[in-house]
Design a protein that fits this description.
single chain; Oligo-1,6-glucosidase, domain 2; Immunoglobulin-like; 20 strands; globular; binds 1-deoxynojirimycin
C-alpha cells in the first residue's frame, strides 16, 4: 500500500523546472545531515538546520543538493539502514520540514536529489520483520538460506556462503525465529533485499514515484550495482575487508542492466531526473553501458578506482600506500576517454565515506592548505562530467586528527577494530590507518564560525568538532576573497558560463610527470589549458607548456613564465 502523499503537487514541483540534461551542466553539493547544522541543540544536524544555511549554498552557486539519508532509521549506519522509506526520522525533523527544504531550494533555483538505499533495508523495516515468518506474503523478499550442509546452524563455518560483510565478519546472520540465515553485505542490521522478486521491485518503484510526486529532482542510488546477485549463491573469492571489489558473486550481477532499465521505464523516463548510481568495483566498460543514454538506465555512476590508488592492491582500504601522481592522472584520463561521446562521468574527491581531500592528497599544513585545496578543486572541476562538492570541502576542511578509538563513531571502524584487535593486530597501526582513511574524517561537523561549537550546535556534538574551526570556517572563508570558498564559487561559475567546460574533449599532457597535472579541454575552436603543480615544492614547466593565453582563474597573483609555485594552478584560454 502506498502511503498518503499530501506533499505532492505543490507549486514549483514540476517537470518545467527540470530542462533536458540539466544535470550535465550542474554542480552538486552533498549534505550529510547529521553533521551539517543542528537547529534544536541535540548535537545532531537536522533539516531545519539545513534550511537555515541555504543562502550559503546559493552564494556558492551549486545547482543541486544530494541529501544523504534522513529517513526513519535505527541509525546503525547513520541512516543507511532505513526502516521507513516514506518518512523522515524525528532526529532530523518531519516530512513537513522536508517539503520546506524542497521549496527553499526550488525558490533559490536549486534542486534536491534524495539518497535511495534499496540494496538493503534496516532489519527493523516492517518488510523484514514480516519476512522472518516463512508463511508470510513477504517470506521471499530477502535472501534466506539454510546452514551449509553438514554444519550446525549458528556455529562457525555454517554460513551458507563464505562472503564477508563490508563491515567485518560474515555476510550472513542466523535468525532464530525463521531458523535460517539472511544475507547482509553491510551490517547485521542491513539485510539485502531480494531483487529477483518482482514484488520487491514494484514496491521500490512505487516509493520512488511517491518522492518524485513530492517534488524531488533525482536519486543517488546507494551501492546500486550490488542488487543483482549471481545465482545460485555460491562461495566466492572474498577476503575479509575486501567484500565489495573482490566478489564477482554480487558486483555488476547478471540482471543489472535489466533491473536498471525496468526502473528507468517505470519511474525515471520522461522526468529529467538526476540519477547517479554508486557502483563499487565497476569497470569503465560497464559504466559506459550503465550511462549510455540509448540503453535508458542511469545518468552517471560513482566509480571507485581513483579512490583505491593509495591502498596496497588486494589488501583492502586500511593497507596504506602513498599516492603516485602518474597513477592518478592515468586513471582519471582513462575514465575521461572511456565515457567520451557515450556515457557521462561524475567527478568527486570527497564524500561521507572518504577522508578529506586536502589532507589526503593535498598539504593541510598552514602554509599550503589553501592553495592545495584550490588546486585539487581546479584539476577536478575542469574535467568533463558532473562535479560533486561534499560539505566543508568548499572551506578546505581537513581530516579529524583523531588519535584514540573512543573518538570514532563509525560502525565500519568500530567493527574492524574489534575484529582486528581480537586477531592480534597492532593497535597503533590500526589507529594510523583510521586517522588517514577513516570515514569519520568526513563526518566531523561543518565549521560555520570560530565560536565554541563552530556554529554547528548549541549542545554537545555527536562527534568532536575539529579544533581548527577557529581558523577554518565558513564565516572567515566567505569574508576573504582569496579563500577556498571563492575559488570553488569561481570554478562553478566557469562551468555555467563556458560550453567548453561542459562539453570539451579532455586530453592529458605530461602523463609521467611526478608533480604536474596538465590537460586541455577542446570544443570546436575553443581550448582551455589546465596547469597544476600537485606538490609542495616548485615545479619547472616543460617548454611547450609555457603558454601566455588569457588566465581565466589561478591560485597565485604573481606568476613566473617558466615554473609553478608550490600548489599553484592556472586555467588558461588558448588563443
Ligand atoms: C555506501 C554508503 O555511501 C555508505 O555510507 C554505507 O555505509 C553503505 N553504502 C551501506 O549503505
Amino acid at each position: 500500500m502506498t502511503a498518503p502523499n499530501p506533499g505532492a503537487n505543490r507549486p514549483g514541483n514540476n517537470l518545467e523546472n527540470r530542462p533536458d540534461d540539466w544535470w550535465k551542466s550542474a554542480v552538486v553539493y552533498q549534505i550529510y545531515p547529521r553533521s551539517f547544522c543542528d537547529s534544536n541543540g541535540d548535537g545532531i544536524g537536522d533539516i531545519r538546520g539545513i534550511i537555515s544555511r541555504l543562502d550559503h549554498l546559493a552564494a556558492l552557486g551549486v545547482d543541486a543538493v544530494w541529501l544523504s539519508p534522513a529517513y526513519t532509521s535505527p541509525q546503525d549506519d547513520n541512516g543507511y539502514d532505513i526502516s521507513d522509506y516514506q518518512d523522515i526520522d524525528p532526529l532530523f525533523g518531519s516530512l513537513a520540514d522536508l517539503d520546506e527544504l524542497v521549496d527553499g531550494l526550488h525558490s533559490r533555483g536549486m534542486k534536491l536529489v534524495m539518497d535511495l538505499v534499496v540494496n538493503h533495508t534496516s532489519d527493523e523495516h516492517p518488510w523484514f520483520q514480516e519476512s522472518r515468518d516463512r508463511s508470510s506474503a513477504k517470506a521471499d523478499w530477502y535472501w534466506w538460506a539454510d546452514a551449509r550442509e553438514g554444519f550446525e546452524p549458528g556455529t562457525p563455518g555454517a554460513e551458507p556462503t563464505n562472503w564477508a560483510s563490508a563491515f567485518s565478519g560474515p555476510a550472513w546472520h542466523y535468525d532464530e525465529q525463521r531458523g535460517q540465515y539472511y544475507l547482509h553485505l553491510f551490517s547485521r542490521k542491513q539485510p539485502d533485499l531480494n531483487w529477483e522478486n518482482p514484488e520487491v521491485r514494484q514496491a521500490v518503484y512505487d516509493m520512488m514515484r511517491w518522492w518524485v510526486d513530492r517534488g524531488v529532482d533525482g536519486f543517488r542510488m546507494d551501492v546500486i550495482n550490488l542488487i543483482s546477485k549471481q545465482l545460485p549463491l555460491e562461495d566466492g573469492t572474498t577476503v575479509p575487508g575486501q567484500a565489495l571489489s573482490f566478489n564477482g558473486s554480487y558486483v555488476d550481477g547478471p540482471r543489472m542492466d535489466e533491473f536498471l532499465h525496468e526502473m528507468n521505464q517505470q519511474v525515471l523516463s520522461g522526468q529529467n531526473l538526476l540519477t547517479v548510481g554508486e557502483c563499487p568495483g565497476v569497470s569503465v566498460e560497464q559504466a559506459s553501458k550503465y550511462t549510455d543514454p540509448e540503453r535508458e538506465e542511469l545518468g552517471m555512476v560513482f566509480q571507485f578506482e581513483h579512490m583505491g590508488l593509495d591502498e596496497q592492491q588486494g589488501r583492502g582500504k586500511w593497507a596504506l600506500k602513498p599516492l603516485h601522481l602518474p597513477d592518478l592522472k592515468a586513471n582519471l584520463a582513462k575514465w575521461q576517454h572511456g565515457l567520451e561521446g557515450r556515457g557521462w562521468n561524475s567527478l568527486y574527491w570527497d564524500n561521507h565515506d572518504q577522508p578529506r581531500i586536502v589532507s589526503r592528497w593535498g598539504d593541510d599544513s598552514p602554509e599550503h592548505r589553501v592553495n592545495s585545496a584550490k588546486t585539487l578543486a581546479t584539476v577536478l572541476h575542469l574535467q568533463k562530467g558532473t562535479p560533486y562538492v561534499y560539505q566543508g570541502e568548499e572551506l578546505g576542511m581537513t581530516n579529524a586528527g583523531f588519535t584514540s578509538i573512543e573518538q570514532y563513531r563509525d560502525i565500519e571502524i568500530l567493527n574492524h577494530w574489534a575484529e582486528a584487535t581480537a586477531l592480534g593486530a597492532d593497535p597503533a597501526e590500526l589507529l594510523e590507518s583510521y586517522r588517514v582513511k577513516g570515514r569519520d574524517n568526513a563526518r566531523t561537523p561543518v565549521q560555520w564560525d570560530a565560536s565554541d561549537k563552530a556554529g554547528f550546535t548549541t549542545g554537545e556534538p555527536w562527534i568532536e568538532i575539529n579544533p581548527n574551526h577557529t581558523q577554518i570556517n565558513a564565516e572567515a572563508a566567505v569574508a576573504d576573497p582569496d579563500s577556498v570558498f571563492h575559488h570553488y564559487r569561481q570554478l562553478i561559475a566557469l562551468r555555467h558560463e563556458l560550453e567548453v567546460v561542459r562539453d570539451g574533449v579532455f586530453a592529458l599532457l605530461e602523463p609521467d610527470h611526478e608533480q604536474l597535472f596538465a590537460y586541455t579541454r577542446s570544443l570546436e575552436d575553443e581550448a582551455l589549458l589546465v596547469l597544476a603543480n600537485m606538490s609542495s615544492t616548485e615545479c619547472q614547466l616543460p617548454t611547450d607548456l609555457r603558454q601566455d593565453g588569457e588566465l581565466l582563474l589561478g591560485t597565485h597573483a604573481e606568476r613566473a613564465d617558466d615554473r609553478l609555485a608550490p600548489w599553484e594552478s592556472r586555467i588558461i584560454r588558448l588563443s
